Amino acid sequence: MSDITRLIIVAVGGQGNLLASSVLGEAALLAGIPLRMSEIHGMAQRGGVVESALVFGNAQSTIISDGEADVLLGFEPSETLRALNKCNARTVVITNLSPLPPFTVAIGKGVYPDITKLQELIRAKTARLIALNAVDLAKTAGNVLSVNMVLLGALIQTGILPVTADNVKTAIRTKTKAAFVDINIKAFDLGFETASGQ
């Protein structure tokens, strides 16, 4: 059994996945787990794709090759689908179901995938899919921008990462502005609870 866990996070710029990565980094530090992180930015500031690779454990490289991800966390459903090549039959996928259609769809040049079909495709290729409307849950928590914390809650609930919910909550308190700490913790808890029901 390898003590290395490979996580891919895909998001659209402005969805807060860099903060999510930073919180996980802090949580790993608190748990005493080595973590290597790399980020590939598209045109993040213009709503482009941002992909982060986080490798927990004593790995030599932050590169997660095709088929190597243990976990895929998708902030946007079509981006989750696009990253499926990183997954294998044992991968657990967590995705937000609320679409942020890319610019090409908005101008009528592309077609957004059917959400039901998208989930079927992911389920067919992976071990488990946790799909939730993180935007609705973030609004329930009190801030639509806390989508990232909802998804972190769902991610930690799987028990795949070598960090605890307490590690992550401590990291949220450290890494987020004081005014948002309570909302972010509530968003984390909502994501955690929703995932445990799937």
Task: Tell me the count of domains.
Answer: 1
- Principal-axis shape equals globular
CATH superfamily: Pyruvate-ferredoxin oxidoreductase, PFOR, domain III
The DSSP helix count reads: 8
Mean pLDDT: 92
Give, in spatial order, the strands making up the sheet with the most strands: 2-3-1-4-5-6
From the N-terminal CA to the C-terminal CA, the straight-line distance is: 26 Å
Judging by the overall fold, what is the CATH architecture? 3-Layer(aba) Sandwich
Main sheet characteristics: 6 strands, mixed
| Low-confidence sequence ranges | none
Helix content: 40-55%
Strand content: 15-25%
Helix-strand pattern: EHEEEHEHHEHHHH
Number of strands: 6
CATH class type: Alpha Beta
Based on secondary structure, the structural category is alpha/beta
CATH topology: Pyruvate-ferredoxin Oxidoreductase, domain 3
- Radius of gyration, in Å, reads 16 Å
Keywords:
198 residues; alpha/beta; Pyruvate-ferredoxin Oxidoreductase, domain 3; six-stranded mixed β-sheet
Walk me through what this model shows.
The chain is α/β, with parallel strands linked by helices and 198 residues long. It has one domain (5-196): Pyruvate-ferredoxin Oxidoreductase, domain 3, CATH 3.40.920.10. The chain contains eight helices and six strands, in the order E-H-E-E-E-H-E-H-H-E-H-H-H-H. A six-stranded mixed sheet has the order 2-3-1-4-5-6, sandwiched between helices. The longest helix is centred in the last third of the chain and has 16 residues, at 181-196. The two termini are 26 Å apart.
